[in-house]
Amino acid sequence: MAATGDARSLAGLVGPGIRRRLLGAGVAVVALALAGTGCVQREDPAGASQAASNSGAAGAPAANQAPADPLPSWNAGASKDAIVAFVEAVTAENSASHVPPAERIAVFDNDGTLWSEQPMYFQLAFALDRVRALAPQHPEWATQQPFQGVLENDLPGVLAGGEQALVQLVMATHAGMTTDEFAAIVTDWIETARHPQRGLLYTEMVFQPMLELLDYLRANGFKTFIVSGGGIEFMRPWAERVYGIPPEQVVGSSIKTSFEMRDGVPVLVRAPGIDFIDDKAGKPVGIHQHIGRRPIAAFGNSDGDLQMLQWTTAGDGERFGLIVHHTDAEREWAYDRESSIGRLDEALDEAATRGWTVVDMARDWRAVYPDAVR
Amino acid sequence: MAATGDARSLAGLVGPGIRRRLLGAGVAVVALALAGTGCVQREDPAGASQAASNSGAAGAPAANQAPADPLPSWNAGASKDAIVAFVEAVTAENSASHVPPAERIAVFDNDGTLWSEQPMYFQLAFALDRVRALAPQHPEWATQQPFQGVLENDLPGVLAGGEQALVQLVMATHAGMTTDEFAAIVTDWIETARHPQRGLLYTEMVFQPMLELLDYLRANGFKTFIVSGGGIEFMRPWAERVYGIPPEQVVGSSIKTSFEMRDGVPVLVRAPGIDFIDDKAGKPVGIHQHIGRRPIAAFGNSDGDLQMLQWTTAGDGERFGLIVHHTDAEREWAYDRESSIGRLDEALDEAATRGWTVVDMARDWRAVYPDAVR
After folding, report:
1. How many angstroms separate the CA atoms of A277 and A27, rounded?
2. What's the rounded Cα separation, in Å, for the pair B323 and B326?
3. CB neighbours of A1 closer than 8 A, spacing ≥ 6?
4. Which of A102, A293, A311 faces B266 most closely, judged by CB atoms?
5. Which chain B residue has the Cα nearest residue A286?
6. Closest-CA residue in chain A for B253?
7. Chain A contacts of B307, Cβ < 8 Å?
8. Helices A78-91 and A208-219, interaxial angle, to 10°?
9. Is the peptide bond preceding residue A370 cis, with omega within 30 degrees of 0?
10. Residues B176, B168: contact at Cβ < 8 Å?
């Protein structure tokens, strides 16, 4: 194992190659592929200090660049050039490539595209933290898998239960409350929980270059959407503050929700059942359902984004597809074809034939994380 | 029967009180409640000329009003006052009632709230027209119910098949094509089909006062959404042109959609299965799924909007609920508690206890329809 400095974390207990897909309610498609796979190379064990160093670097470029550069954390090169060329093409007035503002729809995957996703999807860390937090109300969990495994940091014990165990974890943590209650739980967690290796708040592990890209697109009349395999209600409570993306522009996986009157007060209750899985071939469907028109630009990082990239870039006129390739084991993580989290294999091959821009994180990004607490 | 000048229309064939719910794919909740119920009172048989007269009236007020009036087609009175007071309250800076622009979400039912819905939901007229248009490709329909009944204008024959027959009609007309193909079909229809009694394009039967209300809210920082029991893909192709509401702000009932690669070209295919029914208790669920935060204003006209109004107005702070009461048999239609289309009964009672504004169409609206071809 090349990874993780925190042996106490569940992540540290997982051996190479372990992979499970979490097809449970709410999280829906959260692949439970934890740390220590071969994909994590040369990770800095001093994660937190490294991140702090990144942060310093991230803050600096804005001052060093010409004021006119809207993408100061992007190094000069083909990726940056391609982004700017696309935006200039669709915004150029009286041009054949011009796209009306209403049609300037850009969709972004979240995990691995807007923020990190190692050593496990952050929403899974949330689910595990919720099991721990709820344990006092569930004494039976002490001897009941998969909860016992979570509470004892025995992930092999959890995983022995297979997908069903993971569904149980998600149902126990993501369903059974009102939507308002769940939003409050997520908000509390996201404001306090820290990454076990980096020591950062999860919202400090968003990608500074992508924040600049979001701003740049919006400044050019684009409407930016998240289209994620993660839970839609896990992202909405903080996406506006962190990404500038309002709840109505977040698309994700969902569990069943029902309307009830409780003592004359209407509530929406989250039920333990899958409603929609917004991953792979589900992404174009989710885009269509929520947005109702084809985006002209799509940004992803894994094979889970393949169909979204295909659907977006197959439209008429100027189109833009971009893949964030995690090549930076020093500042973030390096992984692609063999990774159990954020596997990038088929989409990487197709990028060449379809003309998608592949960002080399180590080469193209001057900084990875922002310096300010967001 | 008091209604309809066009005896050839299917609508004219329906006796009083006939009602069926159409729980089919795509249309989902389109109640097949056709003309001639007791609710249609004193309807002008010269529908088209009456509508033209309405149109003339609709065009005039703007010039007769003070330029500052954003709602020229609304007569002075309690309804107009309530709307203006609400908007001024939430937009007043440094006020306890102030609502940030991002939270100024307003949701509008479509059928009966933004446009007419008699003698049948316009989407059902679309379905019947599609059966007629597709008949040459389906010679078997000549002797196969429910299609035979549609083709022979024998609606009792259609209705003899019950809900299953109506589901068949919708599946045959709303599924089995790509999303792009369906959008083109809807666009062609909406640009040419005319109301059997009024002779107007359906998009000429939108309510001028509601168009002004949409504009007024948007001018005050509101984001306006449609939340309709009708098919989401039936509304999106024209909602932006007619209402100024873009596709991503349309919420409605939907059928299953799947992603496919056809000869290397990605398509989304409409399948014959219900995905979501955006009516009654489904409306708050649809709002939550698409918008992700509770609206502060909701506008409806029937019991199908009850839960949307409850959910919206039960939130904290300033809230606004409004019901369009169809009281105008001269210029539009008059119906409420006994109507099989757009029944307004429970919600009308609850309006009094919850403080919702009830618009008396005959009294409150200076004009009903706009004068310009939209």
Report:
1. 9
2. 9
3. A15, A16, A35, A36
4. A311
5. B257
6. A289
7. 259, 266
8. 20
9. no
10. no
DSSP H or E stretch at residue B134: helix B122-134
ipTM of this complex prediction, to 2 decimal places: 0.84
SS3 B195: coil
Residue pairs spanning A and B at CB distance below 8 A: 90
Q: A236–B292: do the CB atoms touch at under 8 Å?
A: yes
Token code pair at residue B72: 């020229």
pLDDT of residue B21: 32
What is the least distance, in Å, from the CA of A60 to any CA of chain B? 31
**Token pair of A216, please?**
């740049």
**Those residues with Cβ within 8 angstroms of residue B100's Cβ, 6 or more apart along the chain or in another chain:** none
> What residue type is assigned to position B38 of the chain?
G
Alpha carbon dihedral B109, B113, B119, B124, in 10-degree steps, equals -30
Q: What is the pLDDT of residues A31-88, one digit of tens each?
A: 333 322 223 332 333 333 333 333 333 334 445 545 589 999 999 999 999 999 999 9
Would you call A258 and B240 a contact, using CB atoms and an 8 Å cutoff? no
Tokens, residue A373: 């607490």
What's the average model confidence in pLDDT over B204-222?
98
Supply the pLDDT for residue A127.
94
Do the chains contact at A285 and B259, CB–CB below 8 Å?
yes
Q: What integer pLDDT is reported at residue A28 of this predicted model?
A: 35
- Answer for the pair A213, A83: CB distance below 8 angstroms, yes or no: yes
Q: What is the DSSP string of A290-309?
A: HT-S--SEEEE-SGGGHHHH
Residue A71 neighbours by CB under 8 Å, 6+ apart: A80, A83, A84, A209, A212, A213, A216
DSSP readout, A14-73?
PPTT--EEEEETTTEEEEE--S-STT--S--S-HHHHHHHHHHHHHSHHHHS-TT-S-TT
In whole angstroms, give the CA distance from residue A33 to residue A130: 19
CB contact under 8 A, A282 and B259: yes
Task: Enter the tokens of residue A136.
Answer: 């006092």
Residue with tokens 């066009």: B6
Question: Which pLDDT belongs to residue B58?
Answer: 39
pTM of this prediction? 0.84
Above 80 in pLDDT, residue B246?
yes
**3-state DSSP assignment of residue A105:** strand
The band of B26, judged by pLDDT with boundaries at 50, 70 and 90, is: very low
**Backbone region of residue A160 per phi and psi (left: phi > 0; alpha: psi in -120 to 50; beta: other values):** alpha
Strands A297-300 and A105-108: parallel
Contacts of B258 in chain A (CB under 8 A): 281, 285
Q: Do A290 and B248 touch (CB under 8 A)?
A: yes
